[in-house]
Amino acid sequence: MGYGCSGKLLKINMTTSLIETEMFDENFYRLYPGGKALAAFLLLREISPSTEPLSPANVLVFTNGLITGSPLTTATRFTVAARSPLTGAYGESEAGGFWGPELKFAGYEGIIITGRANHPVYIWINDDKVEIRDAGQLWGKETEEVQSAIRSELGDERIRILQIGIAGENMVRFASLTNELRHFNGRTGMGAVMGSKNLRGIAVRGHGHYLDLAHDPQMVTQLSRQFAKEVKEHPQSWELQDKGTPGLMNPLNASGLLPTRNFHGGSFDKIDRVNWEAYQKIFSVRKSCYACAVRCKRDVTVDDRYKVSPTFGGPEYETLAALSSNLCIDDLQAIAKASELCNRYCMDSISVGGTIAFAFECYENGLINAAQTGGLELKWGDANVLLELIEMIAHRKGFGNLLAEGSRRAAEVIGRNAMDYAIQVKGQEAPMHEPRGKVGTGIGYVVSESGADHLTSIHDTTLQNPESVSYKAAQKWGLKEAIPALSLGIKKAKQYLLFENWSSLGRVIGLCYFGPAPRSFMQAEEVLQAIKATSGWDLTVEEALVIGERATNLARIFNVREGFRRADDSLPKRFFEPLESGILKGVSISYDDFEAMIDDLFMLKGWDPKTGIPLPEKLLALGLGWAEVMIGDKR
Amino acid sequence: MKIHLGGGLNFYDPQKRVFFEIKLAKNVSLSEVLEMLHIPKGELFIVVLNGEAYSLDQSFYEIFVQENDTLELYPPIGGG
């Protein structure tokens, strides 16, 4: 009887071409059941402190979660991690799609990539046969061509391919990875790390079955049917299925929470041109990840002023907002084209949008001019400039070479007050959620180990009303009190922490953010049932949350080792200034209250509020006493 | 009256309508509109009446609407 995992990892040294396997047992997996926990554990073990992110010494790991590849709806996620070239901190990005499950079917929980190949290569994993193959002919080609060429070369159209694009080859610091051309590990520049290793892709074909790994295959099958049915019966998952994430545009705009003009405002006056209703004119087909009934993905097709291929997936909410309202662009065809280019070249659309918004604001304020941009006039709302800049960034051409470094590094080069316009934390551009209207999201931006991240906790607007479906579901995870979204203080810190552990648990076991309640349909007891059916482990809610907490602490330890401290956990100045548009016009976050709340949060976490370093007793409580030697001298 | 049920609130409408019109014989309160449309109060976050947004508070449900109004209703969004 299995526990949901093979426990087997591949370790591939790109410098020497040595291919090994490593086994972890069930006792190890109980502490680190895959995904983020396993990735962070491996980075701590494999990477020496102060390793240059784009050097051969950086280590790139791919990890599946405990339930990744099971037939349970939303159990599709896998993690890619390394020291981030964008932030210098713990770098991590999850994706759904089909590659993680295929790796599981091939018999592996993860891959550790070390060194650097002396020429472009790709890895071919066919169950227990693993080889490194020449990718000289593939380098410089677009992802669609690379996928076809590899499948043709290996003679199997069902091979799943995870690859970087041209941006990764050019080591754009926010380069992403794609699988099936339309699913992305977007954040923290993992594509650049892969490019630095001359590794274009990892092709996988597995002939195993998840149920053979499961503790109780019958229960897994029963739960998978139950979950697929419940998706249609729950308001949140029903909405994701019905509209996909473009459905977020109208409600966030009406709520004053839609980032507009580089986070100056919270409402876009041209919303009608870029919202879900407008999206229907370019929508072509609904798509999903492996075995997922939510089916939130959308393809778009345009054959008009712009030609947009459906091959690379349509813009999701983050991309839509980052390339429309936050740049004041209202041409949805052009935005769809810009999204296609980000996906085609494999760049994180959040960082692309955030970095270009930064550049627009620098230009508006005279910090840069047309002489520096190669003649381009950077103006809010100009879609042609957006499209041109995306090409320049992906190819590191002209002014694009500076923007390919991300907004923080570009601000350091431009100088004067340019940093005021870089809306980033630890070097990663902020996602499309307005913390002035949901303070918990702001907490997530600053404490996330990987820089500004919107998926570290539940967004607090949903937990204000004790009569709501979300609040009632949150109670099952341990929430005791409804707290206003705009409030700051220790109660908000407690709420944030509870759902930070919840979110981290999902990242560990391979569950998408759109699976569990309170964001979606899967109730706390159902998550525990899924864990039990797959692994046999009978966990309480509290024990499950500790799995998430342990993973967060591991990533924190990585950052402490790299010199990150409490002072790095800070919001951009903009969020302490009043919002300029929308229903929350005039609202700002109090700097002093926010900082006091972060101190409170660190006390609750068992971290030193002065340094942000986990205390020895916290490490012991989490079973991480072994990590004390890594950070003990930093206190 | 023109109605838009955004952010998935149409889940509660038996006909799952997103944009539609209803006839009002008289001016009615927002509470009554919600009842007519089967939308639980606990799920509402923002109302936009004739282009003007209102956030949830005590007096919120006492807003009166009339035949030629345009009403948009939205829930909170949990991220993503």
Topology, pairings included?
The complex is a heterodimer of chains A (635) and B (80).
Chain A: E1 8-13, E2 19-23, H1 26-31, H2 35-46, E3 60-64, E4 78-83, E5 90-95, H3 99-105, E6 110-114, E7 121-126, E8 129-134, H4 143-154, E9 160-164, H5 166-169, E10 177-179, E11 183-185, H6 190-196, E12 199-205, H7 217-231, H8 235-243, H9 249-254, H10 276-279, E13 283-287, E14 297-300, E15 302-303, E16 307-308, H11 317-323, H12 332-345, H13 349-364, H14 370-373, H15 383-394, H16 399-403, H17 407-414, E17 424-425, E18 428-429, H18 439-447, H19 469-477, H20 490-509, H21 524-535, H22 541-561, H23 591-605, H24 616-621, H25 628-631
Helix pairs in contact in A: 2-20, 2-22, 7-21, 11-13, 12-15, 18-20, 20-22, 20-23
Chain B: E1 2-5, E2 19-21, E3 28-29, H1 30-37, E4 46-49, E5 52-55, E6 64-65, E7 70-74
Parallel strand pairs in B: 1-7
Antiparallel strand pairs in B: 1-2, 3-6, 4-5, 4-7
